[in-house]
Design a protein that fits this description.
The protein has three helices and eight strands. The protein is α+β, with helices and mostly antiparallel strands. Strands 1-2-8-7 form a four-stranded mixed sheet.
Length: 143
């Protein structure tokens, strides 16, 4: 059974063998206390031995690559992505604009240390993370 929802509003019924939160979704929760609440809810939703798997961009990815502007696509369907990172606030902002509209996405850069602390506080005892070299993301598997 697959469920899709805003994780901040998700109230699971029953328990699950696994929870997947893909492609840098957690950093959109920019309030650290709210992230802690979400992590605790995920932990409560897992069966014994269940896994929580997620990915997010590393600190280095924010510092090194979260700047600049790039055009995506051609012609009338093209859009612009403008990324900015404020290291003092640990906040990133991506503005997506296209002919006739725009949207903005805000994220918070969580360090491995901070994330590990929040995961342990939420009740996770086994934390595994790995940093593949190809795109700057960090992958976590927690139980």
């Amino acid at each position: 059974k697959i469920l899709a929802a805003d994780i901040r509003d998700f109230r699971p019924r029953g328990s699950f063998a696994g929870v997947l939160c893909a492609y840098n979704s957690l950093p959109h929760i920019t309030n650290p206390e709210e992230l802690g609440d979400v992590l605790a809810m995920v932990r409560r939703a897992l069966r014994a031995g269940g896994r929580f798997v997620f990915d997010l961009y590393s600190e280095a990815a924010y510092h090194d690559g979260w700047q600049g502007r790039v055009r995506v696509g051609r012609g009338a369907g093209a859009c612009w992505l403008e990324a900015r990172f404020d290291p003092a606030r640990q906040r990133g902002r991506t503005r997506v604009s296209w002919r006739g509209g725009a949207a903005q996405l805000d994220v918070r850069c969580y360090s491995d240390r901070e994330l590990g602390s929040r995961l342990r506080a939420a009740g996770f005892t086994r934390l595994r993370r790995w940093h593949p070299a190809f795109d700057g993301r960090v992958y976590w598997c927690c139980a």
